[in-house]
Amino acid sequence: MTVLSYVSDQADSAWSTYLAQVERVLPYLGDLTRWADTLRHPKRALIVDIPLEMDDGTVRHFEGYRVQHNLSRGPGKGGVRFHPQVTLEEVMALSAWMTIKCAALNLPFGGAKGGVRVDPRELSIKELERLTRRYTSEIGSIIGPQQDIPAPDVGTNAQVMAWMMDTYSMNVGATTTGVVTGKPVHLGGSLGRVKATGRGVFITGVAAAQRIGLEVKQSRIAIQGLGNVGSISAELFYQAGAQIVAIQDHSGTLYREDGIDIPALLAWQREHGSIAGFTQAQAIRHQDFWLKTFDILIPAALEGQITEDRARSLTCRLVLEGANGPTLPGADDILRNRQITVVPDVICNAGGVTVSYFEWVQDFSSFFWSESEINQRLDTIMQEALDSVWLKADSLKVTLRTAAYAVACERILMARKDRGLYP
Ligand code: GLU
């Protein structure tokens, strides 16, 4: 195994987590193992400088990235993250998880991801627009509807995608809606895209709960992160009769024994920008979130949140990974030994990229589907993906994560093998 010169040897990094996950699937790949090293090598990584004129006239520089991890099965696909802690290595891991995710769902894409090291909350709307446009222009040579299709992720949204689409279109001289997904619906976006990731968490969560004999109605749920994924998941589980007892975001942690009133909390969040100050639940200490009693945990924030210590003390029976890479490899082992079922990120949060795929197809054909058609197709794809991964896990006697990797890596490496090496 070769080690990349531009990667740190930090044990808890997202890239190390990804490599450890790949290591676990190797025994199940048979002859395809010959090609497995390709999974450890991102195909292409672009680092760009983004000089930005601030509203006060000063100029600041931001670091941006676009990584195409693997393109064996199709164009690159994956979001763009605006976050102050983004690094090249993190984006590499996120792009690799997209490769696995698209293959696990059998979407005709490779994996890619982008990011800018910036706190978007500190920028004015005009600064955010200029940053997005310059970033898009800088990565313009490697993206495109047939090359690599960005989408929203942490810190970006439909408006950011509209600016990206416009900038790319201006540069190539033709309106090119299919260059990004997650756009506003009136600009070639897809109905159902905004809610798709949360909806996927809910669909796979209900199916997984049923399989392990857990009743979703009246179950107790804890959710970390109340962004797009966390809030939609919270809403759907709440509507299904579950009690959301604990919620954590960047501003604090809330707890209510009988379940938090989710519509009231989301209204509060819309008005105040965070959950801080919401009085219809008790504010508790950050670390106590992990010690409360609940049946289902939904990490829907950033990577590396479920550490070994936290895995040892968790009381739940089911973990639904709304975030990408929330569980460290050591914690994964502890959860397995404690018979806590983990629906891995590459299946659980794949609803977003699945509807992104629908959006891309709709843009190509210029024919748009109804929301119920989209939701039905999404439900079917997610159910079938979970079913086949569950079957694989049972037959190999491995975790759902390793089973998902087995299904995905087989598809990726078959494509690699059959395409062969050029030249
Ligand atoms: N950022 C989302 C993810 O991590 C969606 C990516 C996409 O739609 O391309 O899966």
UniProtKB/TrEMBL annotation:
SUPFAM superfamilies: Aminoacid dehydrogenase-like, N-terminal domain (SSF53223), NAD(P)-binding Rossmann-fold domains (SSF51735). It catalyses: L-glutamate + NADP(+) + H2O = 2-oxoglutarate + NH4(+) + NADPH + H(+). InterPro entries: Aminoacid_DH-like_N_sf, Glu/Leu/Phe/Val/Trp_DH, Glu/Leu/Phe/Val/Trp_DH_C, Glu/Leu/Phe/Val/Trp_DH_dimer, Glu/Leu/Phe/Val_DH_AS, Glu_DH, NAD(P)-bd_dom_sf, NAD_bind_Glu_DH. It comes from Rouxiella aceris. Residues 190-420 form the Glutamate/phenylalanine/leucine/valine/L-tryptophan dehydrogenase C-terminal domain. The record marks D153 as: Important for catalysis. The active site is at K113. Gene3D superfamilies: Leucine Dehydrogenase, chain A, domain 1, NAD(P)-binding Rossmann-like Domain. The keyword Nucleotide-binding applies. This is Glutamate dehydrogenase. GO terms for molecular function: glutamate dehydrogenase (NAD+) activity; glutamate dehydrogenase (NADP+) activity; nucleotide binding. Substrate binds at K77, K101, S356. NAD(+) binds at T197, N228. Keywords: NAD, Nucleotide-binding, Oxidoreductase. Catalyzes the reversible oxidative deamination of glutamate to alpha-ketoglutarate and ammonia. Belongs to the Glu/Leu/Phe/Val dehydrogenases family. SMART domains: ELFV_dehydrog. Pfam families: ELFV_dehydrog, ELFV_dehydrog_N. It comes from the Bacteria. GO terms for biological process: L-glutamate catabolic process. PANTHER family: GLUTAMATE DEHYDROGENASE, GLUTAMATE DEHYDROGENASE 1, MITOCHONDRIAL.
